[in-house]
Amino acid sequence: MFVMASESDWEPSPLGEAISFYYLITTYSKNLLEKMTWLKDLFGTEKPIIGMAHFKPLPGDPRFCTLAEPVKATPQASAELVEATTPASAELVEATTPASAELVEATPNLSDFTLQAGQALRRDIEALQEGGVDGIMLSNEGSIPWMTNPPTITATSMAAQIGIARSAIHIPFGVHVIWGPKATLDLAAAVDADYGWEVFTGVYASDFGLFSNVRLFFEVVPEAAVYLGGCSIIDQVRSTIFNALPDALCVAGLKPGEPADLEVVSQIKTINSEVPVLVSTGVKENTVAEQLAVADGAIVGSALKKDGNLWNHVDVDRVRSFMRVVRSARA
Amino acid sequence: MNSWVNELFGVKKPVIAMCHFQALPRDRDYDEKRGIDWIIESARADLKALQDGGVDGVMFSNERSMPWMTKVEQIIPTTMAFVIGQILSDVRIPYGVNVIWDPTACIDLAVATKASFVREIFTGAYASDFGLWAPNCGEIVRHQRALNGQNVKLFFNITPEAAVYLGGRDLASVARSTVFNNSPDAICVSGMTAGMETSLQDLTVVKDAIPQTPVFANTGVRLENVQAQLAVADGCITGTTFKRDGYIWNEVDVKRVRAFMDKVKEIRK
């Protein structure tokens, strides 16, 4: 793997320079050739839809609440995280499915948070798959407000819950530890994920060798942020593609649920048509056709949740209906 | 005295069996070809043999992450959490975790997997094979509290393996001040390495010094010495003797577990 820390560090001999340059070019072109097909190879379709399964607040998160009492079924309980003022109203204490009841019975000491949360994640994953998405992204939305260097407990709790849910997953899946690129790579390696999604640019290039089987989605236009120094988006992405060899690029809107600027997406597409560009926020049933006309795929969360609310559980009917629109857009 | 021990494990003088994980990603001995799936399947098989053999509790540890670190990398507890999550539906007895030799990561993993207990070096200052060794117990316990992990029971190993207490304090006074300063849920007394017998004299000294605190024999308990060890100790943590041919890196042999547990049940009568 060719890694260049910075231009000033790079002062090889003329011969070394030539060899390094040759290596860079061959690696780079091989990488690009491969890029033309990997998205379709992995997901089995052009313009894949990656559905998000969001974790509830995790231990150590501000919104985490412990469930000291045994969980009671509360069918009418609101799923709204924002309304979860008491443990009983949190969605993760909802009535357990037969599968989880079985598990609880087999492990009498474990009718508790980890298991409940793992089962809730499992149900969201099953709903996404039943509704027909092409891939899954497991992401700790519930850890809001997010940290750029999340503590060990975050990825570790996610790993435990993914372990509980893993046997239900039978399509490609990836992970996202918001906003920790290193933690994302650690989690991806720990759970053997197919891809990771983060704001990686440049800094983490040296880790590529170790996690070579994990595809990296670079969020080049992150939420709630602006590139320092006023570099144009096109120049920024051009250098990211050259320097960091991303597997795919993601363009986000201002926050979850808000659409990416399609003009920016199409500008990015003109730089290099071989690196897939995905839109990663604000993709909805009534906009997805237009968005997929420009983008190579989409990561979708809020639109697939009950009432289109980010903090609700995945609604299989909404997934089905959404995927019907996607399939006719692809045709 | 040690009512929480009897309550959690449902017996007096419980036997906590070690479930040693294969080497993990980033470890020297990690087997990339067999990958994570092999770690999961090995752990699942050992867990089954231990439970079928009748042990009272199980502790998951990264025994094969040698040489160990006193501050581990994130990948270690994260992979362990994934493995435990995958086999959790098979677990029928109380379980604990040990991220060797990192007490903070132990707390992280225990909270993430809802484990009932952890074992580590939480106190003291040692010269050891791992360098200068001086954990900060106050910080660790505050970390535990911040993660809502107060229910996790802490087994304090006060005679760490491959280490000597700096300044040469005697074991009885270490035991007494550890209990006063840190209120440990249990104390562990160990031999020099995994598999080496805990000195009966050390066990007796510690038990006499802190009669109100559960004291566990932490290494080298086997069929031939379990009667003598449990005559003093309130329980034991046992790994090597359950492995095929009594060799630490072999898989768990259910016949050896049964023979050991039959003997223990007799002793408990």
Features:
heterodimer, A: 331 residues, TIM Barrel, eight-stranded parallel beta barrel, 9 helices, B: 269 residues, eight-stranded parallel barrel, three-stranded antiparallel sheet, 11 strands, 16% strand, globular
Topology (SSEs and partners):
The complex is a heterodimer of chains A (331) and B (269).
Chain A: H1 14-43, E1 49-54, H2 98-106, H3 113-131, E2 135-139, H4 152-165, E3 173-176, H5 181-191, E4 195-198, E5 215-221, H6 233-244, E6 248-251, H7 262-271, E7 277-279, H8 288-294, E8 297-300, H9 316-330
Parallel strand pairs in A: 1-2, 1-8, 2-3, 3-4, 4-5, 5-6, 6-7, 7-8
Chain B: H1 3-9, E1 15-20, H2 35-53, E2 57-61, H3 75-87, E3 95-98, H4 103-113, E4 117-120, E5 126-128, E6 131-133, H5 137-146, E7 153-157, E8 163-165, H6 171-182, E9 186-189, H7 200-209, E10 215-217, H8 226-232, E11 235-238, H9 254-268
Parallel strand pairs in B: 1-2, 1-11, 2-3, 3-4, 4-7, 7-9, 9-10, 10-11
Antiparallel strand pairs in B: 5-6, 5-8
